[in-house]
Amino acid sequence: MGHQKRNVFLLLLLCGIFLVNVWTASFRNTSGVSRPRYDPTESIPLLLMGGFRGIAVDFLWARAIARHEEKKYYELLTVNNLIAKLQPNFPAVWVFQAWNMAYNIASEWDAPQSKWKWIYLGLNFAKKGAVKNPDNGDLFFELGYMYFHLFDQRFFKYAPYYREQLKKEAGEDNYEEALYWLRQSLLHTQKLRNVLAVERTICHVLWHAALCAEREENLDMALQYCESAMQEWKKYHTNHPEDASTNIPELIHMIEKKKDFLQSMSKKDTW
User: Can you name the CATH fold of 53-267?
Assistant: First the structure.
């Protein structure tokens, strides 16, 4: 009986490997980026039940690590999707896959439109993971950080384009989304980051939101973000005086100067 079970499992696993290879082969031949289509591997979790599922997940994680090290990101895409189906309540796989799409695969494309499609898929995948793991502060933080970092012009030259596309396609502002998810992360248990790191990130988001609003000539919004950033940094400095990672007094002074400038500009507009 034991031999029969092992043989059945090996057969299912081989079928799974075959489907993975067939599915990933389609990515190698594609010349463009498309929205998700039907995945023939959807039925595998129904087959891999009981004790077999744990063994299959271990196998897939080993395969995922190997594909990541080999920089075979499209194959990693499929493997991660399989793991997410088998372990929907394991936040790491959602983060891993979201970053794979939004950073690794997006970086392989030159056109901003193609980059954006993968970034958007990554963000939506992370959101799907957040829905399935509604109490995981680490996943919320990663999602909030992606909404902050991926739209930062210092690191991504097409960041303004991404920001505009997010508004058009989802009706979302990346800074507001970042603040929402980061604040949600403070309300739930976290294992990977402490409260100090999350609160400091929120302060940075507010300040960068103010600078972005100023560049977009939305002075009223820039002033609101500026005031919020100053309040958050002052509160942070009071609560965490031991943090020396940022020269907070100097930063607060800079924000105050920016606030004065924005107020003077607003007055000129009313004349």
Answer: 1.25.40
